[in-house]
């Protein structure tokens, strides 16, 4: 069963505003894998579950054509509304049934999205679409991001507050995800039958942003959005409480203060055999 979330217009907008783009380093690793396994030319890349297209556009400089697909018209509308390279386009469609011919795709990516797909259906479809020696790249990050500010002592106390935030959201997490999506990806990795495949469990990526954006990022997660729908007052109280605690630890009064946010990425790479 595929899981349909992220479809509200406001959620799509908050998504585009706060979600972090996949890091260049990781895009680089994916392209290096494709180069090594298949080699040029890089004709078509398809980014499945592209959402607002933040990752899709990063592929544009490297391919003749890049197509982002998503089941959510609200997400695609946000993606379309941003200017993008002429060789990038978007199409509505489910990951389990995509509108491309057999063996036509050099690189198939799913960025922070594959955990929502019906895994067997998606992997079967990926196998149909990939060209011989074409590659599949699934990447995501864990929810327990870490904050750094000023010194170790303060950073440690900030992370205690963050843990409290994540724990409060845990009951609203979609049951399908389990307590950690890494396990879900590990299973997907194990069910890929291609001999050439890689599992990369941990790549920490640090970025700097105002504290407000960190809050926005956590609030864009499906668990927070579920709570927000169920009990908007409680959701807002939780955010306010966490924000107040973080500000107190930092010893500042404005949420515009910059913090470092460390995100733990993990990813799967696989190459379809020639025969
Ligand atoms: C967490 S977002 C990731 C968006 C984007 N790839 C990024 O990195 O920011 C997941 C996206 O997957 C889409 N999605 C969920 N299930 C899907 C399915 N079965 N087929 C296609 N897209 C799906 C959702 O609509 C949503 O836009
Ligand atoms: C696709 O667009 C990007 C960004 O404008 C560009 O760098 C790249 O060369 C384009 N690819 C082709 C084959 O036109």
From TrEMBL:
<dbReference type="InterPro" id="IPR029063">
    <property type="entry name" value="SAM-dependent_MTases_sf"/>
</dbReference>
<dbReference type="InterPro" id="IPR013216">
    <property type="entry name" value="Methyltransf_11"/>
</dbReference>
<protein>
    <recommendedName>
        <fullName>Methyltransferase type 11 domain-containing protein</fullName>
    </recommendedName>
</protein>
<feature type="domain" description="Methyltransferase type 11">
    <location>
        <begin position="46"/>
        <end position="137"/>
    </location>
</feature>
<dbReference type="GO" id="GO:0008757">
    <property type="term" value="F:S-adenosylmethionine-dependent methyltransferase activity"/>
</dbReference>
<dbReference type="InterPro" id="IPR051052">
    <property type="entry name" value="Diverse_substrate_MTase"/>
</dbReference>
<dbReference type="Pfam" id="PF08241">
    <property type="entry name" value="Methyltransf_11"/>
</dbReference>
């Amino acid at each position: 069963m595929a899981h349909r979330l992220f479809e509200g217009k406001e959620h799509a907008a908050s998504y585009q505003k706060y979600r972090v783009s996949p890091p260049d380093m990781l895009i680089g690793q994916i392209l290096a894998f494709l180069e090594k396994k298949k080699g040029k030319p890089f004709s078509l890349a398809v980014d499945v579950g592209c959402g607002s297209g933040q990752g899709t556009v990063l592929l544009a400089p490297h391919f003749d054509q890049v197509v982002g697909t998503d089941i959510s018209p609200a997400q695609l509308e946000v993606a379309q509304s941003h200017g993008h390279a002429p060789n990038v386009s978007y199409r509505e469609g489910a990951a389990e049934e995509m509108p491309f011919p057999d063996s036509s795709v050099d690189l198939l990516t799913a960025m922070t999205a594959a955990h929502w797909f019906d895994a067997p259906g998606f992997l079967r479809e990926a196998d149909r679409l990939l060209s011989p020696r074409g590659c599949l790249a699934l990447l995501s990050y864990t929810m327990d991001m870490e904050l750094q500010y000023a010194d170790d002592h303060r950073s440690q106390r900030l992370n205690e507050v963050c843990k409290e935030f994540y724990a409060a959201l845990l009951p609203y997490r979609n049951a399908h995800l389990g307590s950690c999506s890494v396990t879900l990806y590990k299973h997907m990795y194990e069910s890929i039958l291609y001999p050439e495949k890689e599992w990369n469990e941990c790549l920490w990526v640090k970025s700097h942003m105002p504290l407000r954006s960190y809050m926005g990022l956590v609030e864009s997660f499906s668990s927070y959005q579920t709570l927000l729908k169920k009990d908007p007052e409680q959701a807002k109280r939780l955010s306010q409480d966490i924000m107040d605690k973080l500000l107190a630890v930092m010893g500042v009064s404005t949420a515009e203060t910059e913090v470092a946010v460390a995100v733990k990425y993990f990813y799967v790479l696989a190459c379809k055999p020639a025969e």
